[in-house]
Amino acid sequence: MNFLQDSNNQEAFWSEDELLGELYAQMLKVVRHKLWHKNDAGDVVQEAWVRILEKRSTLREKDKLIPWAKAIASNLASNANRARRRHESFDDRPEAEYASARTDTDPESMAELTELLGLLDPVTRTLLLYKFYYGLKDAEIASVLQLPVGTVKARIHRSKAKIKILFKG
Predict the structure, then answer these.
(1) Are 68 and 92 in contact (CB under 8 A)?
(2) Which residues form a coiled coil (predicted)?
(3) Average pLDDT estimate for 62-83
(4) Closest by Cα among 139, 2, 145, 103 to 62
(5) I need a surface site. Which of 32, 76, 93, 142 has the fewest CB within 10 A?
(6) Among 30-34, 49-53, 132-136, the least confident range
(7) CB 159 within 8 A of CB 124
């Protein structure tokens, strides 16, 4: 049975061996092409599977599964590259410089930040976390959330202004 013929049946959609095999091969190809350290490919694809399973209800058109999965895998590969770059840049520094670059955040500040983020609506909170916690670029956030880049930039700008107001208040 072709998964496109019965797109309303999620069980049939997600259980076809052919589809899953093709999906895995496509994601692995994208991830290997994008990653600087090829030995991270398995971990990134595994994380992509988790994201796909968590977010499968957000897939609007079932025939777009493979491009959607490839985009998720590509974004996660970019995140892995960025994380490795940060890690390697810290490893290259002398220990004294590394210690001064580290920011040890006290529990009070973290609690206050968590409280401020809790006051925001979920979309705004997600945008800010993607941008400043995970370090995604605006274009990557737009791709993940399926929004225009300009919309993402505007929402982040307004969200930062909102946080400043809440912080001062």
Answers:
(1) no
(2) none
(3) 88
(4) 2
(5) 93
(6) 132-136
(7) yes
In a domain, 2, yes or no: no
Give residue-wise pLDDT tens across range 145-157: 888 999 999 988 8
Tokens encoding 138: 């605006």
Question: End of a domain among 61, 95, 129?
Answer: 95
Identify the domain containing residue 88 by its residue range: 10-95
CATH number where 142 lies: 1.10.10.10
Give the span between the Cα atoms of 30 and 8, in whole angstroms: 28
The answer to whether the Cα torsion of 62, 63, 67, 70 is positive or negative is positive
CB distance 138 to 152 below 8 Å: yes
pTM of the model as a whole: 0.45
